[in-house]
Amino acid sequence: GTILVPFPLESNLSGVGRELLRSEALWYSRKVDVWLRPGRRLLLHFEAIDYECEVLLNGVRVGGHLGGNTAFSFDVTAAVKNGSNVLVVRVVDECAATQPRGKQRRQPRGIWYTSVSGIWQTVWLEEVANAYVEDLRASAISVSRGVLEVTALVSEAAPP
Question: What is the Cα–Cα distance from 51 to 49, expressed in whole angstroms?
């Protein structure tokens, strides 16, 4: 079948509008043309997938994620090739009692939103230099003086 990303399977806007059963896996597949410049890296970003996923690029597992509300990224440089690439994402959502509120039962009674399974936020590719800023952390040193310490987490500078 076909699904419109970034809408959850259960949303009518996805073009599907049905629940993902606990016994099912949701599979996404997309061809992506990439022309990566020499000395660069390619990052694959997901703003959110609900709930557990495995990501493959050209048949190579590039990562996985657990959780429905947090963004995550993978460096896919080792798996990408110039030209046509195939991105596959497998998603399962067991609605376990350990998942955040609203996921414990299929018919929540009193919660006003539908279930959310699958890719429900934006997915995008980003070409970066070999050494790039992965994350920034800010800490208040002195609020009264307006002093802030910022630490940058930089990727390895080694070529891919």
Answer: 6
Q: Where are the domains of the chain?
A: 12-129, 131-160
Q: What is the pTM of this model?
A: 0.84
Alpha-carbon gap, residue 20 to 53, rounded angstroms: 14
pLDDT tens by residue, 102-113: 554 556 566 666
Q: Which residues pair with 46 in a beta bridge?
A: 72, 123
Q: How far apart are CA 13 and CA 119, in angstroms?
A: 13
Q: What separation in angstroms does the CA of 143 have from each of 6, 139, 147?
A: 40, 10, 6
Looking at domain 12-129, which of 2.60.120.260, 3.40.50.150, 3.30.43.10, 2.60.40.10 is its CATH number? 2.60.120.260
Structure tokens at 92: 């399962």
